[in-house]
TrEMBL record:
Keyword terms of this UniProt record: Carbohydrate metabolism, Chitin degradation, Chitin-binding, Disulfide bond, Glycosidase, Hydrolase, Polysaccharide degradation, Signal
Top-rank EC class of the record's enzyme: hydrolase
Protein species of origin: Acanthoscelides obtectus
Alphabetized Pfam families for the sequence: Glyco_hydro_18 (PF00704)
Protein name: chitinase
Length: 273
């Protein structure tokens, strides 16, 4: 679709009609990712053409146009003409999560705000929220257009040795699937809360990375909680960012097992306002 001007034109036309029909106020593009995962390198330029054409078609209707984007600067360099994203998009949702997972082969937090002392290489030191946001700003994005992504879930691991629970510890694979999300390597925050109420987990707040993790026997999970979210929202405000984006709303503690319904979303709203 990106590479064919006729298909882009049809997509833009259909998008306008769809938004009008259903009373939406905008469109968020989540193409993961132009020029990557077997896609043509020309997608980088053609993506810019698409968002320019969408912008022109949306203006008379007052529709918003945004995009979800990867967090690292190296990924942005492959996929986007960043100044054009800054020109044509109303805001840019930076997916500052899934920074680490069982695919790394070792324990790491899903969304660390800052680097850990365990991060020795230059590339490892870039894998955190702070460096990701700075990378987008350095490439020509207005801070006010950036929304910092916060996960309402955790990434889990099965430890090779339950005695080694530190960042970088060896693993045998992803953690056990949760009762609701049912996906190995992932637990919704609601599942984290429920598991911690049923079983004695050791909860640790990492003062280097400013995020919590918890472990029980051979299971380890890194996630965000109200404390780390307060710190991340304060960070977003200090960087003059546009706001906060989450993935995804249905894995907050919506039953209020922790004592508050939707504590993560509530914390975000309270801190922003």
């Amino acid at each position: 679709m990106l590479s064919d001007s006729n298909l882009r034109r049809a997509f833009v036309k259909n998008a306008v009609e769809f938004l009008k029909t259903h009373g939406f106020d905008g469109l968020d593009l989540d193409i993961e990712y132009p020029g990557q995962r077997g896609a043509a390198a020309s997608d980088k330029e053609n993506y810019s053409k698409l968002i320019e054409e969408l912008r022109k078609a949306f203006e008379s209707h007052g529709f918003l146009l945004s995009a979800a984007v990867p967090c690292t600067g190296s990924s942005a360099d492959i996929s986007y003409e960043v100044p054009k994203l800054n020109e044509y998009l109303d805001f840019i949702n930076v997916m500052t999560y899934d920074i680490h997972g069982s695919y790394d082969g070792a324990v790491g937090h899903v969304a660390p705000l800052y680097a850990s002392s365990v991060d020795k290489s230059q590339s490892a030191k870039l894998l955190n929220v702070d460096e990701s946001i700075k990378a987008w700003i350095q490439r020509g994005t207005s801070p006010q257009k950036l929304n910092l992504g916060i996960p309402l879930y955790g990434r889990t691991f099965t430890l090779k040795d339950p005695k080694h629970v530190e960042i970088g510890a060896k693993i045998t694979g992803p953690g056990a699937a949760g009762p609701y999300t049912k996906e190995a390597g992932t637990l919704g925050y609601n599942e984290v809360v429920e598991l911690q109420q049923k079983t004695k987990w050791t909860v640790v707040f990492d003062d280097e990375q400013k995020v919590p993790h918890a472990y029980h026997e051979d299971q380890w999970v890194g996630y965000d909680d109200p404390k780390s979210i307060k710190i991340k929202v304060a960070y977003a405000k200090s960087m003059n960012l546009g706001g906060i984006m989450v993935w995804s709303v249905e894995t907050d503690d919506f039953l209020g097992l922790s004592g508050t319904k939707n504590p993560l979303l509530t914390t975000i709203n309270n801190e922003l306002h």
